[in-house]
Specification:
Blueprint (H helix, E strand, L loop, with lengths): L1 H5 L5 H6 L2 H32 L12 H4 L19 H4 L6 H4 L6
């Protein structure tokens, strides 16, 4: 029950009165809060690193995953199992689908 007493800041009574599903739900909530905290720290680290990045030696911008690899997004796949590519990877900054000619105005 060290998890409940330490990381979750529960009292001894709360910890011993909780059921296993309650404890696991609280632990998942704790893990999500930790990931959010890591993400915020990673955004700041990436912002600072990109502001001071030498574009000759490191041409691609730093991301949160460069500082917190556990936060790297898994590949998204459609129903057929094909990996979906985010639109940002296809379009250049400021470019729209209309400019590519793939979409007609309707």
């Amino acid at each position: 029950m060290e998890i409940g007493l330490g990381h979750l800041a529960w009292s001894s009574e709360q910890c011993w009165a909780s059921t296993l599903p309650e404890l696991m739900a609280a632990w998942r909530g704790y893990q999500q809060r930790q990931q959010q905290s890591d993400y915020r720290a990673g955004v700041g680290a990436a912002l600072f690193a990109n502001a001071h990045r030498d574009q000759q030696t490191h041409p691609s911008p730093f991301t949160v995953a460069d500082f917190f690899p556990s936060l790297q997004e898994p590949a998204r796949r459609n129903e057929e199992g094909v990996e979906e590519i985010p639109m940002e990877a296809v379009l250049k900054p400021g470019e729209t689908l209309h400019e590519l000619g793939d979409i007609e105005d309707g």
